[in-house]
Queue: 3 jobs
Job 1
Amino acid sequence: MKYPFHISEYSHSMGNAVGNLIDYWEAIESTNFFMGGAIWDWIDQAMYYYDKKTGERFLAYGGDFGDKPNDGTFVNNGLIFADMKPKPQYFEVKKVYQNVGVKAIDIQQGKIELFNKNYFKDLSDYQVEWSLFKDGVAAAGSAGTIAAADLPKARQKKQIVLPIKYGKLDAGSEYFVKVQFLLNEDKPWANKGFVQMEEQLFVKAAENKPLISSVANGKNPVLSKEGELQVVKGDQFVAKFDNKTGSIYSLAYANKQIIREGEGPKLDALRAPVDNDNWAYQQWFEKGLHNLKHKVLSSNSYTKKDGTVVLAFTIESQAPYGASLLGGTSGTYTLKEHTDKPFGNDDFKFTSNQIWTIYKDGSIELSSSITSNNASVVLARLGYSLQLPGEFGNYSYYGRGPINNYADRKTAQFIELHKSTVKDQFVPWPNPQNMSNNEDVRWTSLTNKDGQGVIFIAKEHLATSALEYSELELTFAPHPYQLPKSSGVHLHLDAAVTGLGVIAADKGRHWKKTV
C-alpha cells in the first residue's frame, strides 16, 4: 500500500467533544505518510419539535417523537448545531486546520518564525497584525503590522523580529504576543477584517508575586465557637467553618452574604457526562462520586503571632453507597442507587488534608492535599465546588477563552482577560452535559450589578466553570428547557479536569476511547 494515508474517521463530534485534535495534526504534519482524516460530522441532525403540554420548542433527537427503535443522541454529532450555530469544538477545528504556523525562536529578542503551510498559495490575502498583552489585556502602544514583504511564500518559513522591548517589561506582570492574519478583502465565507488565522506566544511570567500576608491590612480577626461552627470575625467580614465537614459554612463581607449556609466549597470529582464519556461515566457513579459525604477525622485551630487564623482539617469523603446511571445514549438518564450495598472502609474514598488561613483583610487561603485509596479510577475532575447567590452573575476570568475549553481542546482559546456572565456560559446542547470549563485560569471573579463579589486566585493555574445549574441537574434534564429553576451560581475550581478525548468509530459502530 502506498502513502499518504487517510486516517478515516479520527474524531467524533458528538456533544461536547473533539479533544486531542492538535495531537493528531502535530503527527500528521511531522511526516508525509498522512494526508489527514475525517470528523464525524459537520452538522447535527436534530429537528425542532414542541412539548405537547407546554408548547415549548426544542431541538429533538431520537425517541422524542415516540419513535422506537431509535438512535438517541447519535444525531447530535456535528461541528455545528442543527440551527447552524457553531459548537465550541468548531473553533478548535478552525485553529488546528489553519494554514500558517507561528512559533517563537528567541522571544526575548522578539524573534519569531512564520511558516506558510500552503503548497501553492502565498499569504497576500491577509493583513498580519501583532499585539502585546500584559496581564491579559492589550498593552497600549505595543502593536503593529508585519509587512507583506516579510511573509513567507508557499511551503516556506521566514523569521522576523517584533519590537517588544523585553528589557522594559514589568517584572510583576505576565506577557503574551498575539499574531493575527486578517482578510484584506471580502471573501465568500467572511468579510474583510475577519481573523482567518491566529496564534498566541508566551513572552514572560510574572515575577516576585507578593504574599497575601504582606498586603493584607486590617484588625486582627477573632476566632470563637458557635456549636459545631468555628467563627472567624474580622474587620468587615465573618467566616464560619463547619467542624463536621471541614469547609466554609457561610461567608459575608461588609454584611453582604457571599456564601449561604452550607454551600461552601467541598471536594468534587463528578461532571455531567458528555456524550463521548460512555467509556468512563459508569464508574463515576459506581464509586459514588455523585453523592460524596464529607466527614472530619481530626482538626486543629490556632492564631499566629501576626493575627492570622489557621484552621486545619483531615477529611474523609465517601458516598454511603454506589449507583448505576441508566439510559445509555438515549439522552434520558435515571439513577439506580444501590442502597442494599453500603460502602465499607475499603470502598472508594478520598482523604484530604485542608489548611484554611484567614488573613486580616478577610482573604482566605486554602491549601489542600488530596489522595484516594484507588489511584486507578479515572476521575472526571478533581477540585472543589461551591454555590453562590444568583445575584453574582457577572463572570470574569484571566485564562483561556472566551469559548469553553478543556485540557485536550484548548489551543484555539487564548490566555486573556475574559468578561462574561454566568448565563452566557451555558451552551444549548440538545441534551445538557458538562460545559463552561476554562483551562489555565490565573484568577476568576463573580460579582453583582454593583461590582460587589468575590475573586478566586490560583497559586498556579486552575480549571474553572460557572453555571446556573449543578452537574446533576445537567445530567438528568433531557433537554435545556427541562432544567429546573436555578438555585444560584454553581462554581467549580479544579486542579484538573479530564479531557474530552477522541472517540473513533468504524461503520460497525465499534467504539474506542483514546486520550
Note: The first helix runs from residue 21 to 28.
Job 2
Amino acid sequence: MPQTADEPDAVAVRSWCSLALEALGREREAIDAINVYPVADGDTGTNLYLTVESAAAAVEAVFAAHETGTSVPSAADAVRAMAHGALIGARGNSGTILAQLLRGMAGVLAEGTGGDRMRLALDRAAAWAREAVAHPVEGTVLTVADRAAAAAGQAAPGADTAEVARAAYEGARAALDATPGQLPALARAGVVDAGGRGLVTLLGALVEAVSGRGPERPYEAPALFVPADGDDAQCPAGDDGDEGGPAFEVIYLLEAGDEAVERLRARLDALGDSLVVVGGDGLWNVHVHVDDAGAAVEAGVEAGRPYRIRITHFAADRAHARPEPAGRAVVVVVPGDGLAALCREAGATTVLARPGEPPASGELADAVRRAHAREVVLLPNDADLRHTAAAAAEQARAHGVRVAVIPTRAAVQGIAALAVHEPDRSFDEDVVAMTSAAGATRYAELAVAERQSWTSAGICQAGDVLGLIDGDVAVIGQDVPGTARKVLDRMLAAGGELVTLVLDEDTPPALAEALEQHVRDGHLAVDTTTYRGGRQGAPLLIGVE
C-alpha cells in the first residue's frame, strides 16, 4: 500500500476496513438475497458484514492505543489486528473463509508493502483459504479468490499497489460472473455466488483505499443465468447444497495446538459438511454443518478449549417458517461462560465478551435478532460498550424491534437487573425496575497489575492485586484474599443487603467460603450469593445491593 507523509500504510488499512464495511452495509441485503449455496439461509451478506465489522473494530483499537502520542500504528500492527479481528468475529461459512483470506494477506503485508507484496498477499490469501476448506467447490468465493490472485499476478511488471489491486478486482469480477456456469445451485437460482460477490465488494473497497478512487467499473449483477435447454447441462456435477443437508451450523473459537486441530478436522469431516477451519498460532475458528451439534462441540472440547459457541438450526430457514416473535426478551453481555449459563437459565440471550475482545455492534444486533422478540432489553454490562449497544439498538429498531438499553457497567449489575425482570408487566415498567435494580448495585473487581503505574489509590507495582470499586482503584494489596476483604469492608461501610461474588474458573472455591464467613462476621444482616463465572479475566467480581 502506498506510503506518504500524509497517509501511512496503517491509515490505508484502516481506510480499507472502513470502506469495506460501508460498502457491505449498502449491499448486505442484496447479497443475502442471492445466498443459495451451501445453504439457502439468506445471511451471507450479513455474515460478511459482521466479520468485517469485527476486523475494523480491532484496527480501531490499535489506533486508539496510539491516541496519547503523535505516531500512528505500523502497517504490520494494523494488518495483524485486521486479521485477528476477522478471525475472532467470523460468522458463517463465508465469514470464516474471509477471515482466512485476510489472514493470508496480513502475513505477507506485515513484512512490507508495494505492488509485488500485494501480488504475493493475494496469492497466499487464495491458497490459504482453499486449504482451510475440507472439500473445495468451484464456482464459490474460492474460485473468485483464485482468479483475483491470478489477475494480480498478470499485472504489468513494476505495477504499484493500486494497479495490482485494480487487476485483482477486475479478475474477481470476471470470475464472479462465471460462477453460475460452475455450480448447479447457482444456475438453477439464476444468481452469482453470494460469497464471491462479497469478495468483489471488498476488493473494490481495497482499490479505493490504496488509490483514492473507486473502481472505474462498479460491479453490477449480470442478467439471470439460464442454462442451455433449461436444464443443468452446462453445469458440472457436484454438491449443490440441496435442502436435505445437515440440520445445524456450529461455529466456535478454539484454543488448541496444530496436531489436535488436524485430528479435529478429520472427526468433523466425518460428522458433517461445509467444514472450514481457519487460524493458527493456537487460535482457530471452526465452522461445520452437522446433524449432531453436541458431537461437534464435544470434538472441540477433546481438541482444546472451545468458546463463543454458536449453534444455528437450519430447519426454520429451509421451510421459510419462523415462529411468531415472543413478547419480550433480555440480551445480556457476560464476561465468562459460567455467567452465560446462569443468564440463559434465566431466559436471557447471551453475548460473550472475552478479555480484550469486546463484541461489535453487529454482534449485539445479531443477538437481538436471535432473541426473536418484539421488545428487547439490552444489558451491555460494560461502560465502554455504551456506544456499541446504542448502535446495535438502532440497527434493531430499524427492523421494527423495540429496544431499551439499560446502562449497566458491570456483570453484577446485569445480574441484579435480570433478577427483577418481569415480562408480564408493561415494557416501560419493566425497564424502570431493571434500571433501578442495576443502579442500586455497587460493583467491584479484582485485577493484577501488569506494570508499575500511578492509580487513584497510589503507586502500584507489577504483580500487585488491585481492588477497583465502581471503576476506580480503591485498594492496592499483595494477595487476592486480603484485597477482597478490604474491598468488601469499604463497600459495606455504606450499607448493603446482598453481596454477590463471581469467581473466575482459576480462583479457588475456598476464597468464596472465606469471604462469605468474613461478611457474616462483620455484617450479620447481609446475605451472600456466589457464582462461578468461568474464564472471565478477573479473579473476582463483587456486587453489593
Note: The longest strand covers residues 272-280.
Job 3
Amino acid sequence: MADHDAVIIGAGFSGLYQLYKLRELGFDAIILEAGPEVGGTWYWNRYPGARCDIESIEYSYSFDPELEQEWNWTERYAAQPELLAYIRHVTDKYDLRKDIEFRTRVTTLDFDDVACHWTVRTDDGASRTARFVIAATGCLSVPVQPEIEGVDDFGGETYWTWDWPEEGVDLTGKRVAVVGTGSSGLQTITAIAPDVAHLTVFQRTPVFAIPAFNHEIDEELAEVKSRYPEFRAESRVTRGGAHCADPEAKFFDEYNPDEVVDELSRRWADGGLCYQQSFLDLVLDPSVNKAAADFVADQIRHKVNDPALAEKLIPTTYPIATKRMCVDTGYFEVYNRDNVSLVDLREEPLKGVTPQGIIAGDTEHEFDVLIFATGFDAMTGALQAIDIRHGDLTLRDKWSEGPRTYLGLMSAGFPNLFTITGPQSPSVLSNMLTSIEQHVDWISDLLVVMRERGQRRIEPAVQAETTWVDITNDTADLTLFPQAASWYMGANVPGKRRVFLPFVAGVDVYKQICDGVAVADYHGFEMTA
C-alpha cells in the first residue's frame, strides 16, 4: 500500500491549491517543496522591482468567497512582497503547512507496475510512495545560467535575479551592470536606476513593453468584490483567462484607418498585456501585427529623448506579442537619466567577464556589481530536472525532441503522473491563476471518479497524445509565434529543441475541450482497476 494517495511537487500557487482541494475531497496528500518557504516563483524572484504582469484582482484564487472578500490588494499590479504575503496568508488560513515538507527536492520518480504507485526519492536520501504524483513545478522555475567566460573571476559582487538575497542588496552609489532585458531585467533596471552611481544595461534583444499605469485600486476592488462570481465566470471564457477593456477586439479589417489608431491608443492608455488583444488577428496577419508594433515603436520614440538610443530600444527582429511582452513602470524613461547607458550586444558582442567588469566589443566596462537577468528553461525545465522513469522509459528521452502530452495534463507511458499548467496547455499564454484552478479542479474531479470506480491507474492513449501534439503544433504554425526566437519556443536554452510549448488557441477553447473530454468519460485516457 502506498504511503500517500498523492505527492504534489512544489508549494507555489498551483501546489497549494491542489493540496487544499485534495484534502477537502478526503485524499491523503502532501507537498514536497525544494525551498524553505511557500511561494514558488514569488519566493525565489525577489529581485528589485519584481512585480506581476497580470492585474492583482485577476491574479488570485477564486475557490473561496470568504478569501476573496477578506484580502485587499493595494495596487493594480502587485509587487513581489504583496504576492508572497498573499500566498502565506492562504497557506496559514487553510493550515496547509502541516502537509508540506520544505527543503525537500524531488530527484527521482520511478513507477512500479506491480504495486501501481510511484516511488518518490528526494535529495535527502529519503523515499516515499504515492498512487499519484502531481507536478506543480511551475513554468518559470529552472533558471538559465549561460556560460560566460570569466564570470567566476569578477572581483566585485555578482547576483542573479532568480536568487536575490533575502536581506536585499545595497546598490547605492555603485557602478552596476544588468545583463538581460526580459521581464526580470526590465523590472530590475527600472527599480535600481535612481539609486546607483551608474547603470549600464547590456541588451541582446529589445523588448516590447506596455506601460502598467500602476495605481492604488480601492474603488476598483470594491466594485469587483460586489460581483466576484460573475467576474470570475467571465474570466474563464476569455482567450487569456482575464478581463480586457471593452469593447471586445475585432478583426483588423473591421476598422477604418482612423479607428485603428483610436483602438491602439485606447489599448495603450489602458495599459498592460491587453494591448496584444487589440485585434483578433494580431498574431495571425503580418500587416496587422506591423501596425500594432509600429504604434509601440512611436511611443518609445516619444519616451526616449535621444533618437539614436530610442532606435536601439525598438524591436525589429520579431513580431510584436510573439515574445513575452513586458508591463513596465517607467522602463524607457530610465534611459533619459544621465547615469544610465546602453550597450547593444548586437553591435558590440559580449566577449566575457574580467576581474574588473565586462568586455563587449572592443571595450572593457568596469563595475562594482554584476546582475544577470538571463531567464528560465520554461515549461519543461523543471520536469526534466527530475529523473522520471517507468521501466526503461524516461521522460527526458521521450521529450528529447519536444514535449509530448495529452491536453498538457499527462504523457503516455507515465501512468498516474499529472502536470499542472504543463507544456501544450494555455499556461504562460494565460492568466496563470485561471489556468491553475482549471487544471487542479479537472485533475481532482478525475481522481474522485477513479476512487468511486475503484480504478487505480490512468494514462493517455498514444493516439490521443499524438493527435493533441499535432493540434498544438499545427495551431501554433497558423500564427506568427514561431517566427520569434523566444522562450515560448525554448530558443533561450542552448541545445533545446525549438518547439512551440504552450497551447495557443486560448483558455476558453481549451476549457471546452477539457470539459468535453470529461463528459465523454475521459475520452483519450485509459483507466484500469
Note: The chain has a mean pLDDT of 96.
